[in-house]
Write a structure and sequence with these properties.
- By secondary structure, the protein is of the alpha/beta class.
- The chain has helices at about 15-20, 35-45, 55-65, 65-80, 100-110, 120-140, 165-175, 215-225, 240-250, 260-270, 280-295, 305-325, and strands at about 25-30, 50-55, 90-95, 110-115, 140-145, 150-155, 155-160, 180-185, 190, 200, 210, 230-235, 275-280.
- The longest helix has 24 residues, at about 305-325.
- The model has no long low-confidence stretch (mean pLDDT about 95).
- Bound molecules: zinc ion.
- Zinc ion binds near residues 234, 235 and 277.
């Protein structure tokens, strides 16, 4: 059993309480490789932001969870080396799908886990989530549950249709399970193709697709039921059109990729939403930089020469999110 505290990691409890009170949200960035992790830590240190490093099922399959766990341990040392005396870094399991997996991650040194029982019937979701919470809390690990279903595809998590969270269920769910935070569905969606063109309207000025607005009425109803309780938004990439354009003008083919407008996420950050998950935007930034570099320098074959610019572009993206969307800059307490 490895305790996350011995690795210099923190759980989400104090971080979320502060974020809800302060009207900002903590960035939860997924990582699968070294360049991504370096970019996340550089951005968090430079902006003095707390940060959640997330590992999804796809990441575990791709990069090996033991290796990723050691990278997260390394991230703490790296942040200190970059000048941050007391980094606030959470290592979080994204979309845990079984009790065994959550238990395994907790024993490996994760400081936070998500148990996603949202596809199960309500009572089974309650029972599974409670089982994970009971184990996690023995080790002071925090747990995120989910109510409501997000549409879209994220690694192996996928659903054709979204079902908004039912505000009338949240008090019962939180009380019965003891979860520390709750992911809700208000119209965000996994992946880079969050909406079909039919669901969108066309912006007359730019000709771009505009997605349907988030269901802030559902968020407000949840907040009314659970005042001050930490709420989480998944699937909250904005799919920057600059990156989509760079990808498409350098040999790529992304058609009608649409994300959540940043002004809506900015509004959500000021509410009880205290964790916002961003994955696709980092993928797009990385791909855009790699495609551009390889198109401009066709003779280049040193991976550092195209992964380096990709890392720079991701760092820029993470800093932009922290400062201009989530408002978590300058929030490290020491
Ligand atoms: Zn998710």
């Amino acid at each position: 059993m490895v305790n996350y505290k011995d690795l210099g990691l923190v759980n989400t409890r104090a971080m979320f309480a502060k974020a809800v009170k302060g009207g900002y949200a903590i960035p939860a960035f997924n990582f699968n490789n070294m360049e991504q992790m370096q970019a996340i830590i550089m951005a968090a240190v430079e902006t003095k932001s707390p940060v959640i490093l997330q590992i999804s099922k796809g990441a575990r399959n791709y990069a090996n969870q033991t290796l990723l766990r050691y990278m997260a341990e390394g991230a703490v040392a790296y942040a200190k080396e970059l000048g941050c005396e007391h980094p606030e870094i959470v290592l979080h399991l994204d979309h845990g799908d079984s009790y065994e997996l959550c238990k395994n991650c907790i024993e490996m040194g994760f400081s936070s886990v998500m148990i996603d029982g949202s596809a199960l019937p309500y009572d089974e979701n309650v029972a599974l989530t409670k089982k994970v919470v009971d184990f996690a809390h023995q080790h002071d690990v925090t747990v995120e549950g989910e109510l409501g279903v997000l549409a879209g595809v994220e690694d192996e998590v996928s659903a054709a249709e979204s079902h908004y969270t039912k505000p009338e269920e949240v008090i019962d769910f939180v009380t019965k399970t003891g979860v520390d935070s709750l992911a809700i569905s208000i119209g965000t969606s996994h992946g880079a193709y969050k909406f079909t063109p039919e669901q969108c309207t066309v912006d007359p000025k730019t000709g771009r697709l505009l997605p349907p607005p988030l269901a802030f009425d559902v968020l407000e109803a949840v907040e009314e039921k659970l005042p001050g309780f930490p709420i989480v938004l998944h699937g909250s990439s904005s799919v920057p059109q600059e990156d989509v354009d760079i990808i498409n003008s350098n040999g790529g083919c992304l058609k009608a990729a649409v994300g959540i407008p940043e002004e809506q996420l900015r509004k959500a950050s000021k509410s009880a939403v205290c964790k916002i998950n961003i994955d696709s935007d980092s993928r797009l930034a990385m791909t855009a930089a790699i495609r551009k570099t390889l198109a401009e320098k066709p003779a280049e074959f040193d991976p550092r020469k195209y992964l380096g610019p990709a890392r720079d572009r991701m760092k820029e993206l993470y800093m932009h999110k922290i400062i201009n969307v989530l408002g978590s800059n300058g929030k490290i307490s020491h």
